[in-house]
Write a structure and sequence with these properties.
Order of helices and strands: EEEHEHEHEEHEEEEEEEEHEHEHEHH
Structural class: alpha/beta
Number of strands: 18
Radius of gyration: 21 Å
CATH superfamily of the largest domain: L-asparaginase, N-terminal domain
CATH class of the largest domain: Alpha Beta
Bound molecules: aspartic acid
Oligomer: single chain
CATH topology of the largest domain: Rossmann fold
CATH architecture of the largest domain: 3-Layer(aba) Sandwich
Helix content: 25-40%
Strand order of the largest sheet: 4-1-5-7-8-9-12-13
Number of domains: 2
Length: 337
Amino acid sequence: MKRKRVYIAYTGGTIGMKPSAKGFVPESGYFSEKISALPEFKAPDMPEIEIHEYKNLIDSSNVTPEDWYRISQDIESRFNDFDGFVVLHGTDTMAFTASALSFMLQDLSKPVIVTGSQIPWSQMRTDARDNLVTSLMIAANYDIPEVGLFFHNRLYRGNRARKFDASGFHAFQSPNFPAIVNVGTRIKVREELILKEPPAHLKIQKISPPNIMILTLFPGFAAEMLENVLSTSIQGLVLMTYGMGNAPSNDKRLLKLLKEASSKGIIIVNCTQCYKGSVDMSGYETGQGLLDAGVISGFDMTPEATLTKLSYLLSSDCSLDEIKQKMQINLRGELTY
Ligand code: ASP
């Protein structure tokens, strides 16, 4: 039987870093050489791989929408030559990249798995080997037409994952949606959760650097700060609210500012500060005030999914009403009603 083929886009991150006087840093050539020479890749159940090491390997804290576009273009240009794709990436902004790719890669029919590690490959106790080898096996052998994020024995839907532990190996979780693959002695795919294969061919859409902001409410928050933010050329605001999507109803200035902004065409999305659960602005008077001000619901989307989806829609040719409507429906499995 013909061996499966997987393309590895190596963008940077801890996985391939080496110790230096300034802490861990990426070093070109080092990691790609190490992977290519691994005896594991000669095993019959491992796919053939091709590694594309990016020119400037980066710590993912330096990632921008331009990098997301580069990765999308890279995948698009090699799409017909491979069975699946693995993106090696730093963990810090991995959930943003996985979310962004899920929107940018439209009509995706093959697995794209973003992974990395907490300890570099060069270190004895590294988690890189497990994350890489299992990601490659899943990308090669399973019919999962979505962008996933693989970490510590779980494949999460990319736009549902969040980094929740800065140093533990179990660094990611998917608070509002189950893992789509669980890895133990066997690789168990939750077929019923996987997105359906699209009828069309892959298309990519660029995300331009957006004029958007995220703002977290807290007791004592001064509406004046919001006024400053809204007086810029801002197009969208993700408002991180309390509980089920609540904000102070006794702060008339805050509600007035939000109402004026939304009637001017600034899209304001309500995202809960809670790690898990969904926004429902009809539950309390404090939520209803936001609804009346024209704030739209982010339902159970993660902040990463909300920000990247809003950026994606603002970069499209959708009208304001279409953007508002699409923000509140499920496009790539990122949102549950
Ligand atoms: N700072 C690193 C990065 O995000 C952390 C990691 O890869 O785990 O690139």
